């Protein structure tokens, strides 16, 4: 029988790449923790209906990309293609709004979309996202954009650009929609097929068509900014002034739109110049209409999602995986020594060291080679002689210095050993 392989568009993530994932997760957790966001973990599958209403049936995600099936109880179910719908469903169902004030939530995990796999585009991929629910203040928009840029900055990523737009409120958009259709109609025959179909249903989406000819035409379309009412304009100006005050540079991009009615005001993307076609690492904006659309109380909200695969690609371009954090590699040979080595490794781990035990039983020479490759700071060696005398040899792997100790000495005065190890790691 042929070996079973991972499905197209899915990946196993393991060492050394996994270290970059852990690095991203640590930075995300740290930045969001310091900004007082609470993690929320929602189910990976939900009723299909949630995504149809929450993302919109006219979108590519819902019309072409969802992993949907009926379960054994004939329920229509979908593997989540994004995180906002589930978070908002939980916000409504768990009555988080009843706690009053603003809810700041974040999530991370796998998402599923049936797409053509390419670098930075998979069928199972991962996002981290935030949702701030219950504030229509422009400062909330700025806060979430600021946190996204902080995360990317703390990861050391460069060559990023923030694209910014406002899609106003429902009324602004209706006026703009009319103007846009009037502009596009004479070019209808030159638009790509999808865009022709959207001209009646969802003309704003034509602006972010990937088709070159359509893009040329869209370039000269009227700009939504010119159709914003006074309040929308004030909101957008406040966002821009605040970003400028924070030294966060941005480019206004009037083609950055979301087609659906519950998207309001700020829309933004952060793109990288180092990712080729899949350039967007972060997409977000305001969605003041979504909570009500899904049956909750009128609630203003703003958020974003970052694609983690794309971050990891960028990190891999920057540097090799972060170095090992192993303290000791334990080597032993002979029955008594092997028995002693398990106990010593266990006690050292319990005391707070990171320890790898060689289980091979092979010749010392081979075990030493593995110790060198392990990235450990020091090797602990137990042979027949050491086992008999409750001793251990400690070999510092960088300097090759060696000393013989009582095993108990390693466990006494742990701080001193930790200091020695961290000095050796920095050397
Ligand atoms: P794209 O235009 O690249 O398809 P999108 O508009 O569908 O992106 P969003 O739904 O806004 O993307 O998701 C936010 C982020 O999640 C994207 O900017 C991207 O970094 C990441 N992302 C989306 N789809 C995928 C995928 N199939 N594989 C890997 N990452 C993805
Ligand atoms: Mg997409």
Could you say which structural class the secondary elements and strand pairing correspond to? alpha+beta
Bound molecules: adenosine-5'-triphosphate, magnesium ion
What's the CATH H-level superfamily name of the largest domain? Bira Bifunctional Protein, Domain 2
End-to-end C-alpha gap: 52 Å
Overall number of structural domains: 2
Please bin the fraction of helical residues: 40-55%
- What is the percentage of strand-forming residues? 15-25%
Gist of the model:
Helix content is 41%, strand content 21%. It is α+β, with helices and mostly antiparallel strands and 427 residues long.
Verbal overview:
It contains 16 helices and 16 strands. The protein is α+β, with helices and mostly antiparallel strands and 427 residues long. The protein has 2 domains: 242 residues, BirA Bifunctional Protein, domain 2 (2-Layer Sandwich), CATH 3.30.930.10; 99 residues, Anticodon-binding domain (Rossmann fold, 3-Layer(aba) Sandwich). It has an 8-stranded mixed β-sheet with strand order 1-5-6-11-10-9-7-8. A 5-stranded mixed β-sheet has the order 13-12-14-15-16, sandwiched between helices. It is elongated. The model has no long low-confidence stretch (mean pLDDT 95). Bound molecules: adenosine-5'-triphosphate and magnesium ion. Adenosine-5'-triphosphate binds next to strand 6, strand 10, strand 11 and helix 11.
């Amino acid at each position: 029988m042929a070996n079973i392989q991972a499905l197209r568009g899915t990946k196993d993530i393991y060492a050394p790449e996994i270290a970059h994932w852990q690095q991203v997760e640590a930075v995300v957790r740290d930045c969001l923790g310091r900004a007082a966001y609470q993690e929320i973990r929602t189910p990976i599958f939900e009723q299909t209906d949630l995504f149809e209403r929450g993302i919109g049936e006219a979108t590519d995600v819902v019309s072409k990309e969802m992993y949907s099936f009926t379960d054994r109880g004939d329920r229509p179910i979908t593997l989540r293609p994004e995180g906002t719908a589930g978070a908002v469903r939980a916000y409504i169902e768990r009555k988080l709004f009843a706690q009053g004030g603003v809810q700041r939530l974040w999530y991370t995990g796998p998402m599923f979309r049936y797409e053509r796999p390419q670098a930075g585009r998979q069928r199972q991929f991962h996002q981290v996202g935030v949702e701030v629910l219950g504030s229509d203040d422009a400062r909330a928009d700025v806060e979430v954009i600021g946190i996204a840029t902080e995360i990317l900055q703390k990861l050391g990523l460069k060559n990023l650009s923030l694209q910014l737009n406002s899609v106003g409120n429902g009324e602004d958009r209706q006026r703009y929609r009319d103007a846009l259709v009037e502009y596009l109609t004479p070019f209808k025959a030159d638009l790509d097929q999808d865009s022709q179909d959207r001209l009646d249903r969802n003309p704003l989406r034509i602006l972010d068509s990937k088709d070159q000819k359509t893009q040329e035409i869209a370039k000269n379309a009227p700009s939504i900014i010119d159709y914003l009412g006074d309040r929308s304009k004030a909101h957008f100006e406040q966002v821009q002034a605040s970003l400028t005050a924070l030294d966060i540079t941005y480019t206004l991009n009037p083609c950055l739109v979301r087609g659906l009615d519950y998207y309001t005001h700020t829309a933004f993307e952060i793109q990288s110049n180092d990712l080729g076609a899949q350039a967007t690492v972060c997409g977000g904006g305001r969605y003041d209409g979504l909570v009500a659309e899904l049956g909750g109380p009128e609630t203003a909200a703003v958020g974003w999602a970052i694609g983690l695969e794309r971050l990891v690609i960028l990190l891999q371009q920057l540097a090799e995986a972060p170095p090992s954090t192993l303290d000791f590699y334990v080597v032993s040979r002979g029955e008594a020594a092997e028995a002693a080595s398990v106990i010593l490794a266990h006690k050292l781990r319990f005391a707070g060291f990171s320890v790898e035990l060689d289980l091979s039983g092979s010749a010392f020479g081979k075990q030493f080679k593995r110790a060198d490759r392990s990235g450990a700071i020091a090797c602990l060696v137990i042979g027949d002689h050491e086992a008999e005398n409750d001793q251990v040899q400690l070999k510092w792997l960088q300097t090759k210095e060696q000393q013989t100790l009582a095993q108990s000495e390693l466990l006494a005065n742990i701080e001193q050993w930790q200091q020695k190890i961290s000095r050796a790691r920095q050397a």
